[in-house]
Amino acid sequence: MTDRIAILGGGTGGAVLANNLAERLAPELADGDVEVTLVNDGPDHVYKPVWLYVPFGQREPADGRRPLTDLIDDRIDLTIDRVTEIDTDAKSLALRDAASPLSYDYLVVATGSTLAADEIPGLAEGGHDYYSEEGALALRDELLSMTEGHLVVSVIGTPHMCPAAPLEFAFMTDSWFRERGLRDDIEITYTYPINRVHGNPHIGEWADPIMAERDINTETFFNAESVDPEAKTITSMEGTELDYDLLAAIPPHRGVDVVADAGLGDRGWVDVDKHTLEAETADDVYALGDAATTGVPKAGSVAHYQAGVLAQRLESEIRGRPATATYDGKTLCFIETGMDAASFVEFDYQNPPSPAPPSQKLHWSKLAYNESYWLTARGLL
Amino acid sequence: MSTTDIEPTDTVDARGAACPGPLMDLIGRVRSAGSGDVILLLSDNDQSLTDVREWVGETDNELLEVDEADDHYGFYVEVA
Predict the structure, then answer these.
(1) Based on CB atoms within 10 Å of each CB, which residue in A79, A310, A318, B24 is the most buried?
(2) What is the percentage of chain A residues whose pLDDT exceeds 90?
(3) B60 touches A at CB < 8 Å
């Protein structure tokens, strides 16, 4: 009997997992005892951290795209299609284009995040973002020609992808306008939904004095309620209204509807055991990366480490051994603190982050990792 | 064991979530609630004692009661 593993999503988590399984289960794959299918709704793998640099004219969205066929091991069945229904009782996936459903014995949900700007009236029309290709390009058009006025960087929804990126964007714009002699004519305001500038208190305590030192205004307890694109104002649930000339917003995020429809979790995020990554409401279903509700950041490093854990657990299941690998919350993030300096944090469920002193070396390390990321996607780094 | 007789309109179970998850879950539910609705937030994170009070204080919503159970808190928030 052949064990069938289905992976939904060809982002960082799905790609790393697929390639890891190809190596780990090589004998079973060769003998036809295991089949691994990776389903993605497009032909490309997308490396989203590139988007942070697009508004500054430093990178192009194409730099973050490569065909999955170049990245995924040939032993994996790559299916370009979209899952329209997950039936966890029948262990079956309905696909948009395929005539017959895809059956599985083990399912890994790696469907990532989607943006939900429409949840905030006026945001789609009045705001910009760097959390999508088209958003980053539109923001670039505005940012490159900005010479004066008020830039508002507003974190509207949490959880969101890459929790450090809003801080990075605020620090980078400050540095970028300063280098170009424009900072005196551009006011920068950073807003955050809770009573500090970052969800993690240790990172918040680190970032807050840097904001003050750089004359970046902060508005905490600012939960955007609406945006008026005509008046160019953003108003919070707490009653604060800000005028803006350019609004760079982090929109609300959701998972995908098919996950919510399957009863795996609210808003398309899968409720999982944060150590085993097993879904709480269905058997033989796992989730990783952005799609999994583990309480750690929705970040590529998280998906990467979780993929390693799941690969080991699935190997154990296939070989009839107790699965002992668990995810400990490990997270790594570089945090740009300007255009030529960065910090770095490493933390897990037990150990909080302690941001490293910003340095040019860490900035170059971040850029170097962005280049070598494609080795990660291939399961090599 | 609940010690209150307040009947919530809706309950947000954020037990197990790390900070600021419970507060953000509450805010998310308040966004879609109607005026006069009472949201019950369940959290086992001590930070919620500070976060929820401070956030409600920033808004016109009202923290009706904080119920301390054996292993979690229950925050009753009436939406303005």
Answers:
(1) A310
(2) 98
(3) yes
Segment A142-198, tens digit of pLDDT: 999 999 999 999 999 889 999 999 999 999 999 999 999 999 999 999 999 999 999
Q: How many domains does chain B have?
A: 1
- The residue of chain B with its CA nearest to that of A272 is B16
Radius of gyration from C-alpha coordinates of chain A: 21
Domain architecture of chain A: domains with CATH: 3-113+255-318 (3.50.50.60), 117-253 (3.50.50.60)
Whole-number mean pLDDT of chain A? 97
Query: What pLDDT is attached to residue B4?
Result: 77
Q: Distance from A222 to chain B by nearest Cα, in Å? A: 9
Q: Shortest CB distance from A194 goes to which of B20, B59, B60?
A: B20
**CA atoms of A33 and A209, how far apart (whole Å):** 57
Structure ipTM: 0.90
pTM: 0.95
Best to test chain A binding among B39, B51, B55, B79 (most A CBs inside 10 Å):
B55
Catalytic residues of B, by residue number, are: 19
Distance CA A172, CA A164 (A): 12
